[in-house]
């Protein structure tokens, strides 16, 4: 019982920190969270700009994520589902490719599209069935190669890889060469096959807001940056020292721990525009398959239900290729690309998010860590997607693991 009064500090109110706090509360403990910014959510933030609801970077919640099923209440989030498939822009043509098993209206367009050959379409079905039979743990135990090598070995044609897999997964992995681990590819493909890509009606930040609302005993201090951390004391940027008995570091690796200086990041740009009409009427993602294009994918957010209603359409455009353009040059180039590759014109530019630390860039990605790997010292534990892989599922799993490791240490 004495342990219930132990002072627990969590540094960082991203998804991993919030899930850690939730799991602590579920087990009768409570923490104080110290968060550098003015709100919770970390990389999950939504802004309202000029009356439009915009996520800070285009991202989706896959509702098949086991950790999301466990820690989130989907019905309260009013998840809006994307149609499984994509509209592909290539050489001034537009094709719709879908999962005809789940959306029969896409059968004809999928079979008659110029994307891949018939054998590719059978291979997609074969891969989906194979991944359904494989557990997530099995996927993460497999020998790692690049996604590109995996697809080539699987026998997909060059056309299928270049016109579908490359733009689709470049947008997810935030790198255009498909160098990301084949484990991540299989995991994400499995999750897409077993559920839907979704967005909460209130935007992506509704996820941390829901986790935050589930906490009743946890306290949060915003606008406090933790500068240093020793065995029982953390020091804030303003020099204040705070003592703790146990801590969870749920930030990117920034204190002296085994991961310091070992992490690279993938960056991206997301730009928002308004327009009077939609080039894609249904909630399907648009992929730009032309190699020369700077833009990777587009999505009309107004094709999904949103809390904030607008008369104009809201379009996001994501760039994953590296560039040296100034902000103004980028806005101009993106509009040029939209015109050249998609025939989309007459846009009003709203906002540009340049996200320098979007996803951890890691090899040897995992689905689980050992307690030893997340133990910084006897009373301090690590959480964060970077410990496993760049996904919301991983962020939640890491937060849960850190909280459980802390609790079992207290019980010793
Ligand atoms: C553009 C983009 C697209 C993405 N797409 C997807 C997607 O489609 N699907 C998916 O599953 N995932 C996606 N992700 C990844 C997902 O958002 C992350 O995996 C997840 O949000 C990471 O949560 P975290 O808690 O590990 O880290 P973070 O969200 O980075 O949280 C860390 C927190 O610590 C705080 N902090 C840092 N330093 C300090 C300090 N010194 N003192 C106090 N506080 C500090 C930060 O302010 C932050 O709130 C995407 C991410 C981005 C940016």
UniProtKB/TrEMBL annotation:
All copies of domain Amine oxidase, residue ranges: 15-253
Gene3D superfamilies for the chain: FAD/NAD(P)-binding domain (3.50.50.60)
Annotated Pfam families: Amino_oxidase
Gene Ontology MF term list: oxidoreductase activity
Top-level taxon in the UniProt lineage: Bacteria
Name used for this protein in its record: Flavin containing amine oxidoreductase
Species of provenance: Cellulophaga tyrosinoxydans
Organism phylogeny: Bacteria, Pseudomonadati, Bacteroidota, Flavobacteriia, Flavobacteriales
